[in-house]
Amino acid sequence: MPTTFAIVGSGWRSQFFLRLAQAAPEHLRVTAVATRSAERGEEVTAEWHVPTVRTVAELVATRPDFVIAAVPWGTMPGTVRELVEAGVPVLAETPPAPDADGLRSLWGDVGASGLVQVAEQYLLMPGHAARLAVARSGAIGTPTHVQVCSTHMYHATSLIRGFLGAGFDPVTVTARDLVAPLVDPLTPAGWTGDETPKDATQSIAVLDFGEGRSGVYDFTSNQWWNPLLSRRIVVRGTAGEIADDAVTHLVDPVTPITSHLEYRRAGMDLNLEGVDLRTIAFEGEVVYRNPFVRSGLSEDDIAVAELLVQTGAWARDEGPEPYPLAEACQDHLIALAIGQSARERREVVVEREAWAH
């Protein structure tokens, strides 16, 4: 049986989930979408072929495994509270609240309910999931340092904390914003045709988690889209290092070797199995297997679809929490501290919060 979910909201965020349900109907099914108006509901039904309702009560009555809150930052906490009051498992889009006070208030109201997960997918992306499997295998010893130059804010901090297993201990943040000219030829609106360098902001932060654990956050304006900017990740351990898809470690006390994550992709050359990623292997062992073969999903879509499936299993008491509210609050609080440190040009300490456990 597919995982079933309903959605509050009909904007661009909700369309990601609707598209995945269309692409993988054997895994995912939408029971209904709550829209503000009947007119908007008719548009959603015409485009996505799903029923729409106006209220949370009507949405819950469609009996989904869980409900996704896909609304703007400012209204997210109120929507989450309303869904928790209705007693339904919730998957809140990121972040669950816009600022530190909002995070603390939301946790105080719904944290004890155990009903809230958050839609953070980056550790489920195939490449990162494979790297995490290698790190957890002990191949590089105990992870002590992570560098992320890829995505921004809470997404990046979730990767850093996830690879380190950093928990909720205090974090000392030192950040700076640096401005330099850069050509920006591609945006979400498409190719600009403009080769003129314009000022871009690079945010760099050092995160000190104590006990020899640290991270480096490095993000430049429009890094997701700009094809002139690469994406990089380093996970350093006590006995080796993962640098993107290269893994360097010892096979005996005097023999370091470098192996690579090997991606098997269907649809290349004369392969007729379809067009998608199949597996990722490390030194002859499969460390990642695509659960949505023949769906044609991008790697980011694979991660979001896997998050939905895991959330469904959790909501049915068939699996663990994929990314609970406490983790999301901690990651966003650290991300906010990065911004504060850069603005104020000083060290900022993130202390233990009520959600720490």
Which CATH top level class of the largest domain fits?
Answer: Alpha Beta
Helix percentage range: 25-40%
Name of the CATH architecture of the largest domain? 2-Layer Sandwich
Strand order of the largest sheet: 16-15-14-13-7-12-11-8-20
The span between the termini is: 34 Å
Q: What is the percentage of strand-forming residues?
A: 25-35%
Q: Cα-atom Rg, whole angstroms?
A: 21 Å
List the helices and strands and how they pair.
Layout: E1 3-8, H1 12-23, E2 28-34, H2 38-48, E3 52-53, H3 56-60, E4 66-69, H4 76-85, E5 90-92, H5 100-110, E6 116-118, H6 126-136, E7 143-149, H7 153-164, E8 171-182, E9 186-187, E10 190-191, E11 198-210, E12 213-220, E13 232-237, E14 240-243, E15 246-252, E16 255-260, E17 262-266, E18 276-282, E19 285-289, H8 299-315, H9 325-344, E20 348-350
Parallel strand pairs: 1-2, 1-4, 2-3, 4-5, 5-6, 7-12
Antiparallel strand pairs: 7-13, 8-11, 8-20, 9-10, 11-12, 13-14, 14-15, 15-16, 17-18, 18-19
What would you note in describing this structure?
This protein is of the alpha/beta class and 357 residues long. It has two domains: 3-119, NAD(P)-binding Rossmann-like Domain (Rossmann fold), CATH 3.40.50.720; 123-295, Dihydrodipicolinate Reductase, domain 2 (2-Layer Sandwich). The protein is 31% helix and 31% strand. The chain has helices at 12-23, 38-48, 56-60, 76-85, 100-110, 126-136, 153-164, 299-315, 325-344, and strands at 3-8, 28-34, 52-53, 66-69, 90-92, 116-118, 143-149, 171-182, 186-187, 190-191, 198-210, 213-220, 232-237, 240-243, 246-252, 255-260, 262-266, 276-282, 285-289, 348-350. It has a nine-stranded mixed sheet with strand order 16-15-14-13-7-12-11-8-20. Strands 3-2-1-4-5-6 form a six-stranded parallel sheet, sandwiched between helices. Strands 17-18-19 form a three-stranded antiparallel sheet, with helices on one face. Strand 1, helix 1 (12-23) and strand 2 (28-34) form a beta-alpha-beta unit. It is globular.
